[in-house]
Amino acid sequence: MSDPSHNPIRARGIRKSFGSLAVLKGVDLDLAKGEVLCILGPSGSGKSTLLRCINHLEQPDAGMVLLHGVPVGYRQVGSKFRELREAEIQRQRASMGMVFQRFNLFPHLTALQNVMEGTLTVLRLPYAQAKERGERLLSQVGLSEKADAYPGTLSGGQQQRVAIARALAMEPSVLLFDEPTSALDPELVGEVLDVMRTLAVSSSMSMIVVTHEVGFARNVADRVMFMDGGVVVEEGPAASVLTNPSHERTRSFLRRILE
Question: Is the entire prediction scored with pTM above 0.85?
Fold first, then answer.
């Protein structure tokens, strides 16, 4: 068994409040190399906030996230931790690709330009290399013919596949998905899940997927974490948690979502 201290992501005691509302109440999370972890739970359970704390889009009130053993967003100076400058945090985020609910594509850039943007500005790749990588990744997500299309002319499913290609272009060691199908029309969900499924099966990418897609979790996830009220209620192998959950709160959630 691999040493858990070598896991790509380790989060310990993550707490986050917005005003008087405690959204995360001391959450621990481990992600092993090559593992697909799906996080399920009702709206407001803290799933998306946890993901945003992992890549420091939200600064935790307490606790620490480690990326390959290095604190995310902080540098240790003696016994204290000091927040990194934004440019340093951006470099850390380059190792954690993020796919958002609402795509977050640049509307004035073509699909190919969106995919190339980070490789040019953050990784500083030569233009020809960035273009070759962008074209290859658009082909991988089935959108070669849309390279010159602008986001406004693409369906939601196509935009999300461009967003996945954009995240992959940075060659991250971890991919974070924040409810990637929740903003899509039902008939477009499958095309995005198919890309994610292929990615999970055909690569050694470590993935954390916040989702309501129980079928995807059952078929693809190595492990499932169920959250409610800002805490982890239950976690374990996907087949165990989704087929025979041990906690009544998990059982009631699954019954309702599968009705």
Answer: yes
Please count the residues of the chain.
259
Here the tokens at position 91 are 């470099």
Q: Which positions ≥6 away from 205 have C-beta within 8 Å?
A: 34, 172, 173, 174, 175, 199
Q: CA quadruple 139, 127, 56, 207: dihedral positive or negative?
A: positive
Q: What is the pLDDT of residues 4-14, one digit of tens each?
A: 557 899 999 99
Q: Which residue type, as a one-letter code, is found at position 114?
A: N
Using the structure block, give the residue that is written with the tokens 């209620």: 233
* Nearest by Cα to 153 from 164, 162, 140: 162
How many C-beta atoms lie closer than 10 Å to residue 93's C-beta? 21
Give the helix, strand, coil percentages of the chain, each rounded to 5.
Answer: 40, 25, 35
